[in-house]
Amino acid sequence: MQSTARKLEQRVTLLERELRKMSSELKAVRKVSRQPWWKRLAGRFKNDPLFDKIIAAGNAYRRSQTPSAR
Length: 70
What we know:
Blueprint: H1 4-32, H2 37-41, H3 49-65
């Protein structure tokens, strides 16, 4: 039967390996995503008829909440 110290050593070794892997993956993601988040999302819904309906509904709601000018 393995000692508790040996089991802990194996677990720490495994955790260190996973942490190195995650760190390298995070570095790779950061290199790709140097653009601001809003630039990466800009144009995502271009030519999407459903999104156009959502925008129209939002505008109509906003207009309905604004008192009319007399």
